[in-house]
Amino acid sequence: MAVRKLWARGARRGMGGLGAGVLAVGFVVGGGVSPAAANWQPDSSRLCATEPAPPSGDVGTPSTPAPITSGSDVWSFVSEPDLHPMRVTVTARQPGTAPGRIFVGPYSLGQVVGQTGALTVDNSGDPVWFRPLPSTALQNADVKVQTYRNSHTGKTQPVLTWWQGSIAIPPTYTNLPGGAPEPGGCYYIYDTNYRLVKTVSARNGFNADEHEFLLTSRGTALFLASKPVPMDLRPYGGSKDGAVLDSQVQEVDLATGKLVFSWDMLEHVNLADSEVSAADTSSSGGVWDPYHVNSIDEGAGDQLLISARNMWAIYDVARSTGAINWQLGGRKNDFTFGPDADFYWQHDARFLPGNRISMFDDGCCNQPGGAPEQQSHGLIIGLDFSNHSATAVRTYYHAPPLYSASQGNTQRLANGNRFIGWGQSSYYSEYAAAGNAENNGLRSLRYDAKMPGSNISYRAFRNEWVGIPYYPPSVAVRAEGGHHVVYASWNGSTETRAWQVLAGPDADSLSVVVGHASRSGFETAVATNSPGPYFQVRALDVTGKVLRSSKVVKIDGIDGIDIDIDGGIDID
Question: What is the pTM of this model?
């Protein structure tokens, strides 16, 4: 059996080049991936936001607390010892959920449980893919599946996208309003093999904002960007030497990198309409956040839908002229609200068919701990343009009631269900289309899960995704109770259904000792009486076909711990 050396720099375990650039070598036998794919490495020059923004707090202010990486709320794996994702608790699981897996970017405003990063889990709460970040002062946000179109070839492909950077969270960051992106953030696009396709950054001195990143059918990316603009804030109750956090919609051509469209809030929306006072900027470096734009959506033809949390308003904008066609909510509201149609501090406004709009109504609060206007919930509003009226069509409440001071989303699923990310509350849920009413949050509930500790995710999505990693499966062996236990995992593989275990007296004489062991969660433990001391695993698909083989490991007969056969030394 031929053994070849597989070299990898900084891209081990699906981290896509984010690590410290450690040089590692393993030995891979067989497998169904071409040499080019197996040896693919990301171009480090295309990576961005790999280090957190420098702290801005006072001298002596503690930095972001280290994550909790052990205990009952954290996953730990023998075959992937560097991965410690959070362990979610599934509190409701009923028939009728939409297909797909769940995508989140766990972090915390305090001490995070598990590592921050991009995480995919299944309905049981088991991890499917995890890409950890090297610091808790780095976060991923808006982790989701999108369609990437190559404008040169016209071909499309499913991709994973997210924002990466540092979010202004005191006491580490006090130079910007809470929730604003620190300088240096950017967007990542990964293909189904977890290879880096492209990174995207904001233009014209703006910072890439975690709140939105949309791929379009034109081969472009629409996203939000922000930057402080110096301004005399005395007319708004602030200081003379203050600044406004301006928000801009930017669109970049992914093929050329050119900025092809921009729209600026300061040029179109009156600062005096904000629901947030300019007087209290002592904890944000003197920067006022009057808008807090948090979503963009494209409508038919020329329309853009823009949500500004701190305005309590949603704007329909004409791309061609930049003019605001109409405003829903806020101080210049163009509509009369029917019962239960009003909203406050909203997020994630989306166009729906039939003159309807969905959103996540935070209903709470100017600041964490402040008095809520109403209970947080998913909301669908119908618009009557003849009568300028807005009607609540559907609502989606949680039991127990939640009051999310920030973040959140309401996703429309293919089967008509709604998937709700509860933002600053540590839940995500799925409801049947009919929804429910306040104080009746269990009606229509199909799925509910809670993140540990104070962990949250800016948004949460349910998406269909097929992942076939470019890197090989991982394997580890332990001597336990007079036999060997082989631990197998393949971070990100959605197609693995079972494992084969091979063993032998040397790396060139391996044979199958366990033909089929059903996959059981992220990591599968398989017991064997084979003495080895060389072991390897193969990932099998639903038909029993070999997808990929792991490296070969040798168990140490002295202490019963496996040793990777690496370091570039040939096997005798």
Answer: 0.92
